[in-house]
User: What shape does this take?
Amino acid sequence: MARFVLRRLLQSAIVLLGVTLVVFLLLQLVPGDPVRVALGTRFDQQTYDALRERSGLDRPLVAQYVSYVSHALTGDLGVSFRSGQPVTTIVLERLPATLSLAVTAVLLALLVAFPLGVLSAVRSGSALDHAARVFSQFGVSVPDFWTGIMGILLFAGVLGWLPPSGYVALTEDPAGWASHVILPATAVGLVTASILTRFIRSSVLEVLSEDYVRTAVAKGLRARVVVVRHVLRNALIPVVTVVAVQLASLVGGVIVIEVLFAWPGVGRLTYDAVQARDYPVLQGAVLFVAALFLLMNLLVDVLYARLDPRIGAR
Amino acid sequence: MKTSSPAAGREAEPVLDIEDLTVTIGTRRGQARAVAGVDWSVRAGQTLALVGESGSGKSMTVLAATGLAPRAARVTGRVRLLGEELTTLSEPRRRRLRGRHVGFVFQDPMTSLNPVLTVGRQVSEACEEHLGMTRRQARDRAVELLDLVGIPSPGRRVAEYPHQFSGGMRQRVVIAMALACEPALLIADEPTTALDVTTQAQIVELVADLRRRLGTAVVWITHDLGVVAGVADTVAVMYGGRIVERGDVDAVFAAPAHPYTRGLLAARPDPERAGGDLPAIQGAPPSPLELPPGCAFWPRCPVRGDARCEHELPPLVEVTRGHEVRTFYPGGEDA
Amino acid sequence: MSAGSDGTVRRALSALRHDPPAVAGTLVLLLLLVVGLAGRWLAPAGTNDVDVEKMLRPPSLDHPFGTDELGRDVLSRVLAAARVSLEVGLVSVGIALLVGVTVGLLAGWYRGWVDNVLMRGMDVLFAFPVLLLAVAIVAVLGPGLVTAMVAIGVVYTPIFARVTRAGVLSVREQVFVRAAVSIGASDARIIRRHVLPNIAAPLIVQTSLSLAFAILSEAALSFLGLGVQPPAPAWGRMLYDGRGFVTEAWWLGVFPGAAIFLTVLAFNLVGDALRDVLDPRQLTVSEARRSRA
Assistant: This one.
């Protein structure tokens, strides 16, 4: 177990180093002088020199990279070309909004996907199963921002029940937060629910055909006990990992929905940084999300090993 | 060990009595008749061997009788377990009877245990379900059972997972699991096929010993006549969903009356006849989707009697007392 | 083309015929192809015929999908945008296929350090959420049709590399490949004659499914203004421009979104049907991890 964790840790570290390289090189790909591009019409020599100095762009590439990584390790992701604020602060400020949206979306998705996935597998071939398959096929094909727009049209426009966009912090006004989060979370969660329904269904189906399930039935256990104790325990191990990874990818992946709903999260920050050509903020947000994604994957694999005694033993 | 005797007069009444059992399975390519009008019974302390190639219906007979047939299967006939008719019973009641009085050992011990539950839990859960034991009592019972099937230091191993056991040891766990509620009947479906030869012999010996000590009735399903001689009292040979020959093991082995049984016996590796080719039966068993109207073995039969074999189903007739066979030519062409 | 991949294609086609959803998906794709090629002539009006007299008109006989905030005919724009979506989808998946298969072949065939370096590189690309990486790439290269294609292509490369590598590893252990190696056939020949036909099935399935995700990604990029640049029409951009008016002019939200949905659905239906025949296995964890555009 310890060796397994150590090996995964090392692998993740190597990949993370690769990630920093990609993120670092992003800035080098900007055609022309990124600082000049960023300043655009607001150009003045003094600001330009200061930013140029801070970003260390005059030094050799390797030295720049080494300094980028060593700074990143201490949590220093540079300063914004726009506001001069540290990137780390800016990103962390946006994290709660994104997390609250992503977690809500995944919870909503699970609420639908878990019963639907399990039931459609246990009653495979039934009308419910067909409905579940149509649902998940549609769900993975629908762009979440379209669902969002349709939601705005119906619930904010026609019915007038919900605000069309905006954000209230959960800590300040839970009810206000809830009324604002429900549309974007549903739009995002629908896709997640479809992916999870499919995955849970196929995972449960696979376990249902295992010999040990027949053994359990032969013991005369109640159907519910067979499903809960023997089928779900095995079927949900891979599902846990997929849920966690979906959550991780939502933290960095809800850019479009955050833009549509004016939700001030990391995705919206990324979008604003792109619009403003604020490259350090863009780099910081991307690196942060990718690191979080890797960390989540690592945790998931360790969790997987804990849940499945066969892996833990290796 | 034997603490209860569920049915009075169990010695006289068969533990499991099957009459005219037929199983048809609806498939995409039509109705498959997996089992056709089979009857047999098994008494306490007795071992019945069901012999046949894969697809002969031997496993399906037992699964259908105990309510474990696939959903697409239609089962008709009468099945009495300890005098109680199972076919008309609701599934919850049948489930309770099945778990309480029938134990199953399946072919592959590598896949028939749940990888994420400890072996102790898997042995004990039936005791909780059917004997109303507490978790603690059931666990103690599991240790006892693991000891009974010859697993060393059962007190420690009860908390281990299946992947920590060897193949032979796993099959012992499966047997312990099957015996958890002291069932009247043990169904062993090819329990040694997936094991190496030495382990096979140990498992055969273990089951024979347990049957003697516990008085359990055993149905042993196999394609290997070599195993049958060692474990069974009576044998029923199945072909194309029907019984083609049955009787006491000694009688059938001494004078096999059906050409198929003779073929199976001849195809058995014999240590005394070392070297030389094994005479195999030519051809393949018939598809349950298109069984011939007459004798199912006719297309492969070395005797190849006459047109009657092709068009008319031979009845099961007695050749000697308690030895029945389904052929027009018992004993070969000149009989 | 060798017998192996020939059989694969034939099996795929015959399977599609007997699967109603796949037939529907194929018909939608054919229709889309016609629209993509001939949209300009099918459209009732020009894509950029601004007419301020006719702003935000609801659907009518003259304008079946209504008009937008500049009085342009929405139907004509939706039809014209089909071409953009298909182009970006096909070219980006083409890039991913070409690069991914090459990387996967090299890694799986030569193994050792080649495998290590290439696949760790793919792991790095795999570590980013799909859309985030695409946005970052487009942001630095500058928005536009070509950069969107490149960005989406890069993002979907690792999955092709993984599928290919897994296929190569299993194929190269098979007897006929070992035999070919032993009689001294060249690597290129063995790969072309034996390896590629044998990994064709999973690649065909992956291509179809990736097309669906690539088109979703293109729509998302163009929604963010990072795809094809105005005044050229794109479904995602139409939704973005219309989002402010959507409560008064529902048709601005409904039609471009429905076009994206139908296109993606069609590719998914065909992809799933292909998977059922060519590569029947359960959904894997890494696939499910990736199935968000």
Summary: The two ends of chain B are 50 Å apart (CA to CA). Chain B touches chain A through 30 residues (CB under 8 Å).
